[in-house]
Amino acid sequence: MAGKQESGAGKRVVVIGGGVAGSLLAKSLQFISDLTLIDPKEYFEIPWADLRAMVEPSFAERSVIHHKAYLTNGNIVTSTAINVTENQVMTADGRSIPYDYLVIASGHKEPYPEARAERLKQFQSDNEKIKSSQSILIVGGGPTGVELAGEIAVDFPEKKVTLVHNGPRLLEMLGPKAAKKTLDWLTSKKVDVKFNQKVHLSHIAEGSKEYATSSGETIIADCHFLCIGKPLASEWLKETVLRDSLDESGRLMVDANLRLKGCKNIFAIGDITDLKEMKQGYLAQKHSAVVAKNIKMLMSGRNEDKMSTYVPTSKAIAIVTLGRANAVAEFPFLTLSGFFPALIKSKDLFVGKTRKLMGLH
Ligand SMILES: Cc1cc2nc3c(=O)[nH]c(=O)nc-3n(C[C@H](O)[C@H](O)[C@H](O)COP(=O)(O)OP(=O)(O)OC[C@H]3O[C@@H](n4cnc5c(N)ncnc54)[C@H](O)[C@@H]3O)c2cc1C
């Protein structure tokens, strides 16, 4: 970084978070700024490909991508941002990184290992866990739990899969039609879906195969997977100069240009924002495009009134895969299930498309 600064080649742009939104933004600005990406992992991972990688670990070879593969002209700091001031970001490994423009894209907290090789091993060991179990308990009926149940039911139809959800229906972020179609499909694949109960995970003895639930049931399973929503990665901001930019649920409040309200040079993109729309990766990519344009414009000294604006999408499209050849899709005025929506997502899970966007084959 020092070299570029000395040459005065560009303004310093720091991106916090190398997920769907941050990685794309970093890629877009790497040749026209002095770009630094801060991420605790040395890789970008396509989150919606994870469930396929658990039943087919080689899938992760393409969906878990070294940051250095697409960020050939940026600085990669493999650490966690722990503090931010008006002009620098501090990281857990003791660095202070100055910025002219800051973009926060820290999305959700992920307990993933730093090294790509370790992450690939995790998929391998999840796969062995699935293969060596006759009965599998999935805790959580959101997209992660549903997609995992679908992958296992299709690739390992002989396994007994039980899915326990603490709410009254599956996929609560979608409408009841999508939930019903999903339940019907899972039931047709002999997945036992139980609603309105919690699994008491803290009470399980080492090696026990008995899982007690809040409604007094006992589920017998050889192993379990926890598929409950991950917390937002914004706790660290609460003690910083940006604390007043957080709303009650820990999201960053942005204006129409995706800048933090009241800040001239700090932007936020992706799931961490308070934009009133479904939290989707393809929308996070749209945020990246708007902010890339806006930072380019500000760097070139043009009038900030000309900055691009982002209008939250009230009609988001959501597709939840059900194994390799089925899916449930919610379009603005239509909910579909079966083969057609699967054509859009289920085979490749947008991995080719995402890689192309990142400039990779
Ligand atoms: C099962 C499932 C299926 C989905 N399917 C789809 C789909 O088909 N299509 C779609 O568009 N969307 C889909 N989504 C939603 C999509 O995954 C998210 O909207 C998207 O990942 C949001 O991107 P993001 O960059 O904001 O956050 P994230 O992807 O959560 O990335 C955040 C990054 O920030 C890093 N980070 C966190 N804290 C810090 C810190 N303090 N310092 C530095 N780095 C930090 C993290 O390590 C991570 O790399 C799906 C989600 C799930 C769970």
Number of helices: 11
How many strand elements?
A: 19
Biggest beta-sheet profile: 5 strands, parallel
Instruction: Briefly note the structural class of the backbone.
Output: alpha/beta
CATH superfamily of the largest domain: FAD/NAD(P)-binding domain
Any low-confidence stretches, pLDDT <50, length ≥5? 1-8
Order of helices and strands: HEHEEHHEHEEEEEHEHEHEEEEEHEEEHH
Give the helix level as a range of percent.
25-40%
Function: Putative FAD-dependent oxidoreductase.
Keywords: FAD, Flavoprotein, Oxidoreductase
Domain FAD/NAD(P)-binding: 12-284
Protein name: FAD/NAD(P)-binding domain-containing protein
Explain what you see.
With 361 residues, the chain is of the alpha/beta class. The chain folds into two domains: 154 residues, FAD/NAD(P)-binding domain (3-Layer(bba) Sandwich); 149 residues, FAD/NAD(P)-binding domain (3-Layer(bba) Sandwich). The chain is built from eleven helices and 19 strands. It has a five-stranded parallel sheet with strand order 5-2-1-9-16, with helices on one face. Helix 8 links the parallel strand 11 and strand 12. The two termini are 28 Å apart. Bound molecules: flavin-adenine dinucleotide (FAD). GO terms for molecular function: electron-transferring-flavoprotein dehydrogenase activity; flavin adenine dinucleotide binding.
In short:
29% of the residues lie in helices and 21% in strands.
Task: Describe the SSE topology.
Elements: H1 2-7, E1 12-16, H2 20-29, E2 34-39, E3 43-45, H3 50-55, H4 60-63, E4 64-66, H5 67-70, E5 75-78, E6 81-84, E7 88-91, E8 96-98, E9 101-104, H6 116-131, E10 135-139, H7 143-155, E11 160-164, H8 176-188, E12 192-194, E13 210-212, E14 218-220, E15 223-226, E16 266-268, H9 281-299, E17 318-321, E18 327-331, E19 334-338, H10 339-345, H11 351-357
Parallel strand pairs: 1-2, 1-9, 2-5, 9-16, 10-11, 10-15, 11-12
Antiparallel strand pairs: 3-4, 6-7, 7-8, 13-14, 17-18, 18-19
The structure holds flavin-adenine dinucleotide.
